[in-house]
């Protein structure tokens, strides 16, 4: 076992095996050194405190949630879908790094849509909505080797453009209140006198979103990253022309899953994946996640297309796979780097929490390498859960009139409802 992995295990064990045991600052120091990260003492203290609070939140949440031990955040999945992530043929040269190095390259991907709360709640309740994308078969050197050998690239977003804390220091204080079941105490308080107005507004925006379908939302990274030499934020926006009709009863607790299942029974869905480069003259801080980078100063530029073909995704095996998936902003390859103190904290926290819940559930850590569900009893067929009788590769595209393959070829795009359903559906 490599030393850094050993250290990681020590850290995680000390963090989680016993409620009396605390994660030691020595273990964190060693880990941070092994990872080669630059981190101040104050930042380390904030991370230790965040992990401690997160553990308390999990403990309480678990008393309310049914079923397996869930994620600390984004506990409820509304669906895990198969998708193609295709790099645009005309991607500007400065973005051709990491998984974007090859114009026209297509990656099989998994998308986990989620509700943000730590509790599993009815879909109609206001909440942040998550979209976490995992590209499989990524090539290049892993940016965080302690996370394992299989190369994947994750893009983790929610449907609000800004976070409710500026940095890890504010976050650590805020989550201490949350761990005491005090959801407002950090934002407003009499003693010590406290009024964090911008943050309160952001938090309100975050938790008040009600939606018709996860396929119709726009999602944001909120935090910055570096791709090649460019600092940027990223976002996924439904493709022009994508319209999703409401067809299910929205009073049902899991209507978002039902709505996506109904839409994807015969139709496909599509997102533009875009980046917003940081410009020096703008108000675009790297360590204040409450600031929305102005799109007038730096517009988002589409660099890839996410195509979600018609499919069935609600089997028990697929839901269990989804529960056991680990998304992490530090799953990445090549010239890609998450930036800012919140992102540095996520490198430690996401892995710790993922290891913990897998151990609690006695579930293996599996990383998919394609659209097949690893270790499933059902063998992976060429159809791989798609609602298409004969998958022809590349797949036809829907809601995607602007799609231009790099070869310039005109692709079969029989994407009107009739076309997909009658010509391709297995039913
Ligand atoms: C500000 C930008 C952030 C975004 C866009 C974001 C978004 C998300 C999303 C979408 C998920 C669900 C991932 C999945 O489907 O598996 C998630 C999980 C999680 N997030 Fe965040 N998050 C952010 C910041 C943070 C921070 C600062 C922390 C704590 C330091 C944090 C802690 C967690 C944890 C512990 C999980 C569960 C991980 C697991 O069990 O696998 N998040 N986040």
UniProtKB/TrEMBL annotation:
Keywords: Signal
Record-linked InterPro entries: Catalase_sf (IPR020835)
Signal peptide (residue range): 1-19
Name of the featured protein: Catalase family protein
């Amino acid at each position: 076992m490599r030393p850094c992995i050993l250290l990681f295990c020590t850290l995680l064990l000390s963090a989680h095996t016993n409620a009396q045991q605390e994660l030691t600052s020595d273990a964190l120091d060693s880990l941070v050194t092994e990872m080669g990260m630059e981190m101040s003492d104050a930042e380390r203290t904030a991370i230790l405190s965040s992990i401690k609070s997160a553990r308390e939140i999990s403990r309480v949440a678990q008393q309310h949630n049914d079923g397996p031990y869930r994620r600390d955040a984004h506990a409820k999945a509304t669906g895990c879908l198969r998708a193609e992530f295709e790099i645009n043929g005309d991607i500007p040269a400065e973005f051709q790094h990491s998984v974007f190095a090859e114009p026209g390259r297509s990656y099989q991907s998994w998308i986990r849509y989620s509700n943000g709360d730590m509790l599993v709640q009815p879909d109609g309740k206001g909440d942040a909505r998550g979209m976490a994308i995992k590209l499989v078969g990524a090539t290049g050197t892993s940016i965080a080797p302690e996370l394992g050998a299989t190369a994947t690239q994750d893009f983790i977003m929610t449907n609000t453009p800004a976070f409710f804390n500026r940095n890890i220091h504010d976050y650590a204080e805020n989550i201490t209140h949350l761990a005491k079941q005090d959801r407002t105490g950090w934002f407003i308080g009499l003693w010590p006198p406290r009024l964090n107005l911008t943050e309160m507004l952001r938090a309100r925006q975050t938790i008040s979103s009600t939606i018709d379908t996860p396929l119709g939302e726009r999602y944001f990274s909120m935090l910055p990253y570096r791709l090649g030499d460019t600092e940027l934020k990223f976002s996924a926006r439904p493709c022009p022309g994508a319209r999703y009709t409401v067809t299910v009863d929205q009073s049902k607790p899991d209507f978002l899953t039902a709505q996506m299942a109904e839409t994807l029974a015969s139709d496909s869905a599509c997102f533009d994946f875009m980046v917003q480069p940081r410009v020096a003259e703008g108000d675009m801080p790297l360590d204040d996640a409450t600031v929305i980078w102005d799109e007038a100063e730096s517009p988002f530029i589409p660099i890839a297309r996410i195509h979600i073909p018609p499919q069935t995704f609600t089997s028990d095996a697929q839901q269990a796979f989804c529960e056991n998936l680990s998304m992490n902003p530090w799953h990445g390859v090549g010239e890609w780097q998450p930036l800012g103190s919140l992102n540095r904290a996520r490198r430690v926290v996401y892995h710790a929490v993922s290891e913990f819940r897998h151990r609690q559930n006695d579930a293996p850590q599996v990383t998919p390498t394609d659209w097949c569900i690893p270790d499933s009893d059902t063998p992976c067929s060429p159809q791989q859960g798609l609602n298409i009788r004969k998958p022809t590769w590349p797949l036809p595209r829907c809601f995607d009139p602007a799609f231009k393959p790099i070869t310039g070829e005109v692709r079969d795009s029989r994407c009107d409802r009739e076309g997909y359903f009658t010509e391709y559906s297995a039913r």
